Amino acid sequence: MVYRILLALNHKIEEYDVRASIYGEDGRLVDEKEFKGVKRVSIVNSRVYVSAQLSSNPFTLIIETEKPSVRLKNENILVVGE
After folding, report:
1. What's the pTM value of the predicted model, to 2 decimals?
2. 49 near 62, Cβ under 8 Å?
3. Count of H helices and E strands in the chain?
4. Is 10 in contact with 38 (CB distance < 8 Å)?
5. pLDDT tens-digit series, residues 16-61
6. Using an 8 Å Cβ cutoff, are 9 and 43 in contact?
7. How far apart are CA 48 and CA 25, in angstroms?
8. Residues 8-27: pLDDT tens digits?
């Protein structure tokens, strides 16, 4: 099963506030998570898109992955798809 994650990045001074919306293969929202104080985003084993149809603020990445994992590592590194 391929999941789609919309990762909305709100830039702050030296960090991001991030909202991750996880959608199933049928297009339904499966889960939504928010993270504050993210310094870096690491996307593993996934396909990443940027769409001009989405708002530039927040900057949004579209991530397709078989592993819909979104978690914080070391308190400020957001890891997606691992």
Report:
1. 0.88
2. yes
3. 0, 8
4. no
5. 999 999 999 999 999 999 999 999 999 998 899 988 777 678 899 9
6. no
7. 16
8. 999 999 999 999 999 999 99
